[in-house]
What does this fold into?
Amino acid sequence: MVSNACPTIHTLVISNISERLNLSYLTKFHNLRHLNFNGKISTSPEDALQILRSLKLLDTITLVRPPSSKVMWPPSTISSITPDIISKMNPLRSLSLMHLTNQLPSDLFSAPMLQALACHRDSLRSLVIDVFHRIDGELMEGLLTFISTSYLTELTIMLSVPKPFAYVDIHSYFPATIKKRHASFIAPKERETWGLPWMNEILFLNMRGAP
It folds into this structure.
């Protein structure tokens, strides 16, 4: 097994988009800090949480839905890492939620996931949200509130947002831990400019604090 051959692995990336990860495979990765995969699991949610909590050094999770039409599971047909699992994990330092396809609504970034983020408010320092589908105003408001009360030092957001939020003063929501000089806001573009018919307004925000 890889865990026996490479016991000091810190980062594990599962790049097969069609693979359902059996999390019991991770139990011997005692030094694992960063897990990057599609979020789909063959393990029960109860066992998944127990295994993830047993990895005491794991503090970084990246969940990716790739831009592929070959394997797209409706959210109800297969087990996945849920907001409940995220909320009960050991304190996370970094979380990335990347839904890079427009073929299904995102099950990665949602109101329950935002509530899960709040459980890691004190420890979370890096957050990436990259979602092609447009989010609603209530979720956007919740995200801005979370950002303003967080201790984030790095934040990257790429979202399709409701038009009223396209011109909001994002800077006013920056926590003190982030240096404003690294922030950028790109105004929304017309559909023809993007060449992407499902997008009207895109919010790009990239902030990085002092090292």
